[in-house]
Amino acid sequence: MALSDRFGLPLTAASPVAVEDYVAAVDLILSANTGAEALLDRALAADPDFALAHIARARLLQMQTRGVEARAAAAQACALVDRLTPRERAHIETVTLAVDADGPGALRRLEAHVQEYPRDALPLSLALGVFGLLGFSGRLDHHEAQLQLLQRLAPDWDEDWWFVTYLGWARIELGDLATGVDEVERALARNPHNAYAAHARAHGYYEAGDPEQGAEFIAAWLAHYDRASQLHCHLTWHRSLFELARGRPDTARALYDDAIRPGASQAPPFFTLFDAASFLWRCQIYGENPPLPADWAELHEFGERHFPHAALHFADLHAALAAAATGAQEAAERRIGEARQREAAGKLPQGPVVAELCAGTGAFARGDYETAADLIGCALPELPRVGGSHAQRELFEDTYILACLKSGQYDRAGARLRQRLERRPSLRDRRWLAELPAPT
């Protein structure tokens, strides 16, 4: 009996029961739901030589920032490749490169792999999303590159809920809201438990400047989503931004305490760090229910414990916010220096923008707003290189705008506000623009 996955690709496996568990586990991984680890463990108990179950487990562990375990699981998969088909060998090689933190190598291997096997979802998933291989490639055009990749593969995918989710999300980030939202809603209709589709829909509300509907959508969707699932913290963060935008900072703060702050979030440390830092920083610079020193101290300790040295640039950017807000100047300077060392060694494809943003936010925290405006302003043309979404990167734009306002550079603030409002509506941006003094 020939065994295959949900995408019609043959599997080298000895047990139909193991394949059934593997297929279910992959869908849980692709929809950011809990339960995949137990299913993969059960599949491997039934078939210890099921190589693709080992590599799926490696990918899952990597997503949970359990690096040592992930590399061990990948090594188990690699030890079994001699008995596999060429497609399965390439699948394992691609995921292993990603697990080993060779992003450029993984992306090159993936691009070749999907040309021949366009429906091999797990390797393809490595390239996609805000923190995928393209998002963290350091390219200015990573949003465009994702859409181009998906459009090229779309004829092989039809209406698959996973693929249509990412196609819609890519369109939303590039401003095609009508098409993108329609695709994401179709994906949600096919799999209402798909957290990545709920996340993409939240971005649709954000880019449309609709915090009322956005907050209501996320609140309703999260009511049925396991708090231990990967995106619970991040979706709560999205709702907190909507609550800030609709003038409800106390509600936003309650969400932070309930599901975002260290100790409350059950997400991997990476998600907890950037969501918590981003929320606290916004509250601080907006002056809306600003955080207490103890909030920043807790987050700074969390960042230093989980990310003690510069390595993952997006973590470094947000750990630097916590260090700056805490007044931990030595830690902030150390992280900036390490980022520059990584750049000089060719290990930071994002380039100097990481150190510049860290230094700029540090200057803002010290009250040196003119320096902050200059440093962040120089970095803004390169801002997409850091990856993430528009919503995440706007933190640095907000800091720049407020630095300009606080240092009396109203023309610079106005220019950035008008540029942003051309891309998406925002009540806050319109209010800031209206409060600018009239030109003399």
What does this entry look like structurally?
It is a single chain. With 440 residues, the chain is an all-alpha fold. It has 3 domains: 16-126, Tetratricopeptide repeat domain (Serine Threonine Protein Phosphatase 5, Tetratricopeptide repeat, Alpha Horseshoe); 137-208, Serine Threonine Protein Phosphatase 5, Tetratricopeptide repeat (Alpha Horseshoe); 225-434, Serine Threonine Protein Phosphatase 5, Tetratricopeptide repeat. It has 23 helices and no strands. It has helices spanning 16-30, 36-46, 51-63, 67-78, 86-99, 103-116, 121-125, 142-153, 161-173, 177-190, 195-207, 211-222, 232-245, 249-260, 269-286, 293-306, 313-326, 329-344, 353-365, 369-379, 390-406, 410-423, 427-434. The mean pLDDT is 97.
